Amino acid sequence: MSGDLVVVGGNSHPELVTAICEKLNIKQTTSSIKKFANGETSIQILESVREKDVFVIQSGCGHVNDNFIQLLILISSCKIASCNRITVVIPYFCYSRQADIPFQSKGGPKLLNDGKKVKDNFQDFDNSGNKLFVSQNGTLIANLLTTAGADHVITMDLHDPQFQGFFNIPVDNLYSRPILEDYIKWEIDDYKVDLDNCVIVSPDAGGAKRATKIADSLGVTFAMIHKEKKIRATSDEVSNNTIDAPKMQRLDSSTSKYVTTTMLVGDVSNKICIMIDDLVDTGYTMLRAAKLLKQQKCKKLIVVITHGIFSGDAVQRIVEANKQQNLIEKLILTNTIPQTEHLNQFTEGGIDCKVLDVSNILSEAIRRIHNGESISSLFERGWH
């Protein structure tokens, strides 16, 4: 590998940084990352990066805001040290879930052609019945990275692909799909033995496109779980049969009630279900989908996740639900986020868990970008 290639790693996922450097056959550039007593971050790059092609690796997990600030300072440190180019590698892109609601720079709602407000542009209500605007941070995050000095961004399975549009620099959104497909095809025995009775399931409408691509590639059927959030009437309105939806929408958020209903689109009866999702945080959506699939008599459920965040007590919640109802046969994760602790917790809780390594595809992307080669083949199966 060329001596002009430099890899600088943050503290969020040191194991992945080490694995990528091993694949590239280079040593990680040493740096000193410290914190002052008041929590401020101090960083020093301890080797020369002058005129080098620098790749800064930091996943958006753990203490998200601290790690993101650390990433910005790492980028700025390399830029000030006169490096040639900075490519930021963010396996899990934090804040990517906050780009899905249309908004204008003035802070008001985006309007449709007929002048009506886009649905869900605002969430919740204040005491006066006014909807509260929720800030969207896609442009802010993009501007922070570019202002710090990033020239290129590599990430994997963006939760919202439109996030790429907030940048005015190249953004390569790599797919974990080749890795997941190969695992399903070669490692899941039930898939190999009983292909006709296998179905790919998306736990919500947002992941339908991703799941259908995998289903089409593997040649199996597809099913989707549709989730709908409705306003539940008050007890007085139910008893008086005077339910007025617009009136309910004007109620104070502390008194309004919501009910979430789910329905399955597709046939899973007596079939092996492989549920595909890009991101699991609290685990509620995954468990709700798993329970529905079991109610619909699915034979076996295998859950495949790219970014397993599992915030708070999510792991305990999933383990307890699985002990009570035997929902999940196998759980497949990738290491875009550190998974050693989660792996041990799931295994101890009786869930067969497997972690897939993404360092191969990330290191290959780094190598090709450094050498000016095309990375289009990384989006397809069989490149490795």
Protein model, in words:
The strands form four sheets. The protein has a seven-stranded mixed β-sheet, with helices on both faces. The chain contains twelve helices and 16 strands. Helix content is 32%, strand content 25%. It folds into two domains: 5-96 and 136-175 and 360-379, 3-Layer(aba) Sandwich (Rossmann fold), CATH 3.40.50; 177-356, Rossmann fold (3-Layer(aba) Sandwich), CATH 3.40.50. It is α/β, with parallel strands linked by helices.
Short description:
The protein contains twelve helices and 16 strands. The chain is of the alpha/beta class.
Topology (SSEs and partners):
Blueprint lengths: L4 E5 L4 H11 L6 E5 L5 E5 L7 E5 L6 H17 L4 E6 L31 E4 L5 E3 L4 H11 L3 E5 L14 E4 L2 H11 L1 H5 L4 E5 L5 H11 L2 E12 L2 H6 L4 H5 L7 E9 L6 E9 L3 H12 L4 E9 L5 H12 L4 E5 L5 H9 L3 E5 L2 H13 L13
Parallel strand pairs: 1-4, 4-5, 5-8, 8-9, 10-11, 10-13, 13-14, 14-15, 15-16
Antiparallel strand pairs: 2-3, 6-7, 11-12
